[in-house]
Amino acid sequence: MTTIALAQINLLVGDIAGNARQVIACADRLRGSADIVVFPELTLTGYPPEDLLLRPACDARVAAALHDIAAAAVGVTLVIGYPAVRDGVRYNVAGVLRDGVVEAEYRKMQLPNYSVFDERRYFEPGANAVVFVQNGVRFGLSVCEDIWFDAPVQRAAAAGAQVLLNLNASPFHEGKGQERETLVADRAARFGVAVVYVNLVGGQDELVFDGSSFVVDAGGELKHRAGQFSVSETLVGFEDAVPQAGEIAPFAEREAQIYAALVLGTRDYVRKIGFRSVVLGLSGGIDSALTLAIAVDALGAENIEVVSMPSRYTADISNADALRQAELLGVAHQTISIEPAFEAFLGMLAETFAGTEPDATEENIQARCRGIVLMAISNKRGRMLLTTGNKSEMSVGYATLYGDMAGGFAPLKDVHKTLVYALSRWRNRDAEVIPQRVIERPPSAELRPDQKDTDSLPDYELLDAILVRYVEHDHSVDEIVDEGYPRADVERIARMVDSNEYKRRQAPPGVKITRRAYGRDRRYPIVNGF
Amino acid sequence: MTTIALAQINLLVGDIAGNARQVIACADRLRGSADIVVFPELTLTGYPPEDLLLRPACDARVAAALHDIAAAAVGVTLVIGYPAVRDGVRYNVAGVLRDGVVEAEYRKMQLPNYSVFDERRYFEPGANAVVFVQNGVRFGLSVCEDIWFDAPVQRAAAAGAQVLLNLNASPFHEGKGQERETLVADRAARFGVAVVYVNLVGGQDELVFDGSSFVVDAGGELKHRAGQFSVSETLVGFEDAVPQAGEIAPFAEREAQIYAALVLGTRDYVRKIGFRSVVLGLSGGIDSALTLAIAVDALGAENIEVVSMPSRYTADISNADALRQAELLGVAHQTISIEPAFEAFLGMLAETFAGTEPDATEENIQARCRGIVLMAISNKRGRMLLTTGNKSEMSVGYATLYGDMAGGFAPLKDVHKTLVYALSRWRNRDAEVIPQRVIERPPSAELRPDQKDTDSLPDYELLDAILVRYVEHDHSVDEIVDEGYPRADVERIARMVDSNEYKRRQAPPGVKITRRAYGRDRRYPIVNGF
Questions:
Q1: Chain A 494-513, CB below 8 Å of chain B: which residues?
Q2: Which of A49, A340, A505 sits opposite B348 (nearest CB)?
Q3: With contacts defined as CB-CB under 8 Å, which chain A residues touch B371?
Q4: pLDDT for B236-279, tens place per residue?
Q5: At B452, is the pLDDT very low, low, confident or very high (cuts 50, 70, 90)?
Q6: Has A108 been annotated as catalytic?
Q7: What architecture is domain B2-243?
Q8: Could you tell me which CATH number the domain at B256-453+500-505 has?
Q9: What is the ipTM of this complex?
Q10: What is the pTM of this model?
Q11: A380 has catalytic annotation
Q12: Range list of β-strands (E), A314-412
């Protein structure tokens, strides 16, 4: 009998010494109950370390950490990930630490260089399988992307591996957990190896890692699954090379998974940056309402401050709904009218703008007055400002730079408006957290009299359907029209997406939850004649 | 005798049909005077096309453009660059178009995936040399990075190439022109091939391509050099495979090159986005003064509007110097005091901030009031807002998000403060463009009484020296201290650089002129425990 621990932990990118301390603490806790502890990919640097890997000091710190961890690898075998320069070449390594030494190093063969991944910027691929024996069982090694390809698994199996340990830093998007298991089960069955899949948990900038570590047997059958979005140390017993059945944590429904990703991504971003509390503008609209719910679940009501900032165009029910939600959730609330500043700017610009008609300029001034108020509170009290915009708005530029786009983090950046509604309804499933009227009112930016979002944009159902096809699936205008969408809308939306890249480039980060988010995931030129 | 034209042209990324029209116009102009016209790398998409390459519509448009260009390749051979999917794999190709058909395609072997480059995200490497014969001379092909390595040149020479045509999209940084020539001359001499090096010219987002196309003979001797930062069609005669001597445009002095890069990068960004004019805040300080000089040289005084926005802390001579420069350069100038808005915000926040002391919050409010005024003018008049911050400030976060950082483009983003001074003196070499007093006064943000930059920052000579070592050379704090810099300063500056990544992530783009600029060139995590 061999016991393997799946160390599904939350690391801090760049904090090599701190991550090493986590590994050592884990080893100390599990020594005696586990024979082997498997950690996520690039355990020591966290993932993705990006250009920190290019700092020579990074290598020195990894070497020092390895030395300390090896000393703890007595009475327990530790399998950890780290970058390693060997013969002048940097590899993404899974190391086996046993009996006080680094006994073996496996070099990742498949280096992802698509989507958010840039691994060929840093690493060269390895070529050789590595197998080590413990309690008579032969364990092979692999790192993340390796298991999405046949060759690394085939080589491990050919080298005699009975159980493949797979170290991961696999970011979440909707449906990713099932995708992984389907693929790994197929790989396991085809090559006749059991697979221990260990994933990171936690947020890092725009990514959130969901954990969901699991074990399949050599027939591809699921034997264990750790929880999603939470740290855990799962112990899995093996009879020879056969994993014994254990707990399979269920996947929650779609909205629950996405909501949990947003909460974890927001919490980790705020806390890992060094903030404890946040401020946000509460307008009475649904985006800020959902953002507030997420913030409360992420950081606790006592760490949240909300500000309502009415203008001449704000409906009374907006103020009332904002206040009601603040009371429902027990967060600090204040109201600051933006009228004095708005009036001041109109006066300052009266001569310059003489003879012109009001247009988006005056709307933007209002949004920017709110940005100044919120940033002032953020600066004065040391609270991070959360922005409340959603992916539909960010796609078409229906947002004001330095106004409602101002802030340190945008929880809904990758959430389409239709999903904002679905998540709001889901969050209200047991009790009213978002006032029902906020969900039911037609959305409005309230920047001019009787404004509705639909004055400037198509219906959100239509908008989001077109956006998914254009942005996430790279369909052309003609293809989307062929799928049954009105040409005028499709052309206009495609043009808006392309021409608003400059706004997105100055937007704060937010949690990636779709197959293609804005940010590192979608690299478009700003100057673009396509 | 064979005549080769070096088509050093300025393309628009993504505008495949428009770029094809440029190629055809060039062919029509040169038919009869040139036997072969060589264009830059990825001629049809422009460079870098980034994720536009992932759109299936891109391939269709390239195929259509190729068809049109091939029809023009009669009586002249055209060598152009484009992405090409062949057997399901995308390559970065140099195609030979002759007698109405695409006669041969060379696939780039070396795909850069460092610095600003992401070519492994899009392309697979080729493996084979391609040689074509014209007038009895054997011409080999290569694309950009290929010539920085031995293998592609060696294979071309082994395949019989006497002259290597090298299609480039090589971005400028200080000293890059000489670097390229030294390296290519060495490669030519070692493998005994003449090299025709054709580079793109123009700005694309943060990159500026400087042209400086050239020809070396098989002994590595420089025979021709086209101008830097300007479009040109240079004709080079070859006796058999031997390039005849021609004009060698001199490299200008360091400041002249950098200034020209900033002017071209700014002009192309503004115009290619579709703007004709800009607005900027003129404070009486040196950063905005140099930015104005660049803007005038890039776009013409008639397309520039400047605004001075004094507060209670603005010195009279700041206002006077701003006005004087506006008069010197003949740009539209107005003065709008920010006091009414600043007062309004202080009043609106009085209750919230009761009992607190003034701090950076109030300074930021002033900077943000200026941002609102400038953005209002930008919005109302359709002028792009230029921001005036420099690289030293951006490195340590000595700038206000949504305040002085607001804007569409930042000409000085990659220019350290010490270089701002050098460029200002250089620009004043013949006549006063920047009032001399602006260059001589100690710099101040003027956000509180008697403020000087040196209250918060080390002397700029010291700051910039440390920044170059930490940011551009990846030296560690210990190494920089060993080089003779005070530990307290080095530690503080390194910490400021790391902790201000969040500000840079929301900064507008600007022209890359150093080996490592902020942006695509330096990919750091925001959450960073290093």
A1: 502, 505-509
A2: A340
A3: 368, 402
A4: 999 999 999 999 999 999 999 999 999 999 999 999 999 999 99
A5: confident
A6: yes
A7: 4-Layer Sandwich (3.60)
A8: 3.40.50.620
A9: 0.96
A10: 0.97
A11: no
A12: 332-335, 384-385
